[in-house]
Task: inverse folding
């Protein structure tokens, strides 16, 4: 994106990141990209599952070679603190006292067990901004329900409304809410709280109940029920007003890979442009399709006819041709397209390639937004497990080398 | 020391967006910013989008518009006219943040006419100007048309969603626009923190394609490490206990057998057994198998092959068990045992959820309509987060077209009332 230098908006802000897996660490990653000093608290007794996940660098093993973890933790420092060891809470509070932001997606039960509730944090750091991401909130009958993205997709209506009406809902293939919606909302709340603190000196607690954060993205469908009593249903790739609007199979590529194109026609002028491009395809001379109403009434036939036309065409070239005449279209890109063939992304240098001591030059997502004068950037790859324990214990927490040795011997640090 | 009641107290935002960026303005408005929606004279086209109040189409009746524009005020201005551009320039002088989601064609035309972000920034150095676009402001695809579907296709997420024997699938809820809105709001607040500290504003740019990329989960990372693209798997999970199951009245998603997440398979067997439905799965010869029945233990191909018969048996018994329960019962009873189960909730199920009710998540207020007075207050979805010192709030319903022309142009910008009438007469407002 840009060279690793220059002032960033969160320079001087320190984050005690007690989160793990996706929604928490990605929020910390954004704060780090924009200048914050983010300290990931980890422990041998509770290793982040993503360090043990997939994909791992071929031929390597251990805690440091999984890209799933590494992508969400670039730009951070790793500090090993075993919260079940006697004396660990004092170290945690000492870190929080020296931090501006506390971040956690631990369950309410663990927060209580570790003594890290907002009230307890305020005793050592009255103006702390403490962001909690419990699955269903810090209160309520479902307070202790467990989950993660794949469970949130069903419980918030996304699964119910995604997919074909005549088939069962199968989810969206990933833990979708974990990656942009929940971390993004969390960062936004933290930034708002930071502004408030800069103006008033007052910190606060942020409670992001993940189920509420995702349900808030489904507003129109929820309002349709609460005002009209209408329960919307799945409708595949159909739009409620655009037509044609769908994903159409194109010619397989030379290696037999399925290729698809997405097309969205929003008005008659775009439809006419598409028809001019398609020249003599059946749908261009079929009167049923000449108006929006006609196209909607005969949508199944239209989609069939469009598919017959796209079936022999190259998806990427067709998308370019359609875009050249003002019709919204795109190749349905897979990871190979994103990483290897999308010259647009490459020219914009969205992906960062960072040299990691164990995985070598590896791909990372770039910052989620571009700022012209104070851009975010990835200053370093993901930390090795416990890479910064000693420097944080001494430089940030002010322990002497002897004290670090004692804490290590006591099993608090490692 | 002044204590403000909202986080974005005193921040003025001009919101020129349509569907693609309107969530940004909502997020900022709910956090306390004064967000003025700047609409073309006939109203923002997104006012026409379904669903509608009582199913009756109309520019003041779109539920979608209401949801994304509550808390905003509305002025109209025709940027195609010289006087309209002059008026807009006066309004920009009062603003801290401008957000727009122009298409490439609109952008070049407006800049040609002098509605130029860089020129405003030069005149007003602390200004923040946020652009929400499908593909960013530069690069070969920067001129491309975009919709929610196109953005999901272009960012590598549609290919992962859907049925393995079907087409790539769009995730419901205009999620590309949602993620774009969250990205631009983060960018605007990052820039605001910098501007308030330094006096220096800047351009902020969201490319929806880039903002969504991280939602590929591991697909792009797997390509980087292994040179293989991830397939669309739909329901083809590796083991029973993980997937979508039919219930008496709908579906649940079950995720039992992921190490480190909730209770293990043995708890599922105990539950079925307590209800007399574990069938032969409780027999001693299976005990050892189910004690370590999870995704990691079953990861090896040989192990999968060896256990195929018992896995098929477990799948049958479990499917029958879930099929005998309502979705709510399977969800709540399972979670009470710390089994990872989520109900496939419809909008009605969410509206009836007693947990959200107990947390007072829903908001209620009156929204004026053109169909006469509303018959009841709106039951309006609540916020994504709760801030203890600066809570979010809905302070006003979504505005009617140009509802605040008088208030903003005359009372706040200082346009003489007679001049506003003249501008209105020529169609500039």
Result:
């Amino acid at each position: 994106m840009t060279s690793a230098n220059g002032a960033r908006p969160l320079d001087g802000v320190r984050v005690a990141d007690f989160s793990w897996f996706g929604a928490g660490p990605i929020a910390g990653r954004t704060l780090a990209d924009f200048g914050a000093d983010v300290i990931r608290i980890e422990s041998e007794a509770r290793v982040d599952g993503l360090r043990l996940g997939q994909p791992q660098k071929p031929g390597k093993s251990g805690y440091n070679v999984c890209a799933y973890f590494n992508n969400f933790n670039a730009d951070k420092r790793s500090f090993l603190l075993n919260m079940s060891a006697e004396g660990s809470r004092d170290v945690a509070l000492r870190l929080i006292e020296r931090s501006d932001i506390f971040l956690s997606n631990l369950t309410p039960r663990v927060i209580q067990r570790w003594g890290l509730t907002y009230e307890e944090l305020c005793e050592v750091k009255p103006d702390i901004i403490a962001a909690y991401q419990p699955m269903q909130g810090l209160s309520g009958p479902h307070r202790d329900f467990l989950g993660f993205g794949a469970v949130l997709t069903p419980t918030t209506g996304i699964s119910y409304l995604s997919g074909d009406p005549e088939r069962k809902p199968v989810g969206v293939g990933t833990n979708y809410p974990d990656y942009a919606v929940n971390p993004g909302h969390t960062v936004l709340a933290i930034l708002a709280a930071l502004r408030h603190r800069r103006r008033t000196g007052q910190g606060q607690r942020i409670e992001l109940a993940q189920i509420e954060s995702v349900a808030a993205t489904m507003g129109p469908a929820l309002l349709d029920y609460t005002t009209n009593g209408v329960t919307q249903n799945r409708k595949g790739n159909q739009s409620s007003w655009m037509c044609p609007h769908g994903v159409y199979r194109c010619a397989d590529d030379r290696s037999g890979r399925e290729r698809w194109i997405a097309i969205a026609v929003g008005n008659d002028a775009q439809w006419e442009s598409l028809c001019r491009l398609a020249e003599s395809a059946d749908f261009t001379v079929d009167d049923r399709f000449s108006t929006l109403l006609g196209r909607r009434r005969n949508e199944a036939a239209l989609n069939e006819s469009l598919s017959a036309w796209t079936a022999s065409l190259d998806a990427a070239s067709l998308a370019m041709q359609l875009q050249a005449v003002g019709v919204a279209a795109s190749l349905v890109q897979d990871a190979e397209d994103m990483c290897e063939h999308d010259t647009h992304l490459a020219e914009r240098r969205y992906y960062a390639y960072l040299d990691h001591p164990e995985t070598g030059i590896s791909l990372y997502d770039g910052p989620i937004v571009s700022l012209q004068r104070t851009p975010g950037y990835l200053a370093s790859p993901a930390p090795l497990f416990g890479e910064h324990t000693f420097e944080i214990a001494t430089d940030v927490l002010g322990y002497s080398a002897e004290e670090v040795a004692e804490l290590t011997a006591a099993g608090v640090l490692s | 020391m002044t204590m403000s009641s909202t986080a974005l107290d005193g921040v003025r935002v001009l919101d020129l967006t349509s569907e693609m960026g309107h969530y940004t303005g909502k997020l900022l408005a709910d956090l306390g910013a004064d967000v003025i929606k700047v609409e073309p004279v006939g109203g923002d086209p997104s006012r026409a989008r379904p669903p509608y109040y009582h199913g009756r189409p109309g520019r003041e009746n779109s539920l979608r518009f209401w949801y994304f524009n509550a808390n905003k005020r509305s002025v109209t201005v025709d940027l195609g006219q010289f006087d309209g551009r002059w008026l807009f320039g006066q309004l920009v002088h009062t603003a801290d943040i401008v957000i727009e989601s122009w298409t490439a064609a609109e952008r070049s035309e407006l800049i040609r006419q002098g509605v130029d972000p860089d020129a405003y920034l030069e005149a007003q150095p602390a200004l923040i100007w946020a652009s929400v676009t499908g593909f960013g402001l530069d690069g070969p695809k920067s001129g491309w048309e975009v919709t929610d579907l196109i953005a999901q296709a272009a960012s590598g997420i549609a290919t992962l969603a859907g049925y393995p024997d079907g087409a790539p699938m769009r995730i419901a809820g205009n999620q590309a626009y949602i993620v774009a809105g969250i990205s631009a709001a983060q960018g605007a607040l990052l820039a605001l923190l910098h501007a308030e500290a330094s006096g220096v504003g800047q351009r902020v740019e969201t490319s929806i394609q880039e903002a969504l990329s991280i939602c590929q989960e591991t697909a792009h990372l797997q390509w980087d490490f292994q040179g293989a693209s991830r397939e669309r798997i739909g329901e083809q999970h590796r083991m029973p206990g993980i997937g979508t199951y039919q219930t008496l009245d709908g579906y649940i998603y079950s995720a039992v057998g992921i190490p480190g997440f909730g209770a293990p398979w043995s708890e599922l067997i105990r539950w079925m057994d307590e209800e007399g439905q574990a069938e032969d799965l409780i027999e001693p010869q299976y005990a050892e198998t189910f004690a370590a029945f999870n995704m990691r233990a079953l990861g090896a191909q040989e192990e999968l092959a060896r256990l195929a018969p018992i896995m098929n048996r477990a799948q049958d018994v479990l499917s029958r068990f879930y099929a005998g329960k309502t979705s709510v019962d399977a969800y709540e009873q399972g979670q009470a045992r710390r089994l990872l189960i989520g109900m496939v909730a419809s909008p009605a199920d969410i509206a009836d959820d007693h947990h959200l009710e107990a947390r007072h998540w829903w908001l209620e207020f009156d929204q004026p309509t053109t169909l006469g007075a509303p018959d009841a207050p709106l039951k309006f979805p609540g916020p994504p987060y709760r801030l203890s010192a600066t809570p979010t709030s809905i302070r006003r319903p979504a505005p009617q077209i140009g509802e605040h022309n008088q208030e903003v142009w005359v009372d706040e910008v200082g346009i003489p009332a007679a001049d506003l009438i003249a501008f209105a007469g020529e169609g500039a407002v």
User: Anything to note?
Assistant: Chain B has a mean pLDDT of 94. Chain B has two domains: 12-216+362-425, 242-348. Chain B has 17 helices and twelve strands.
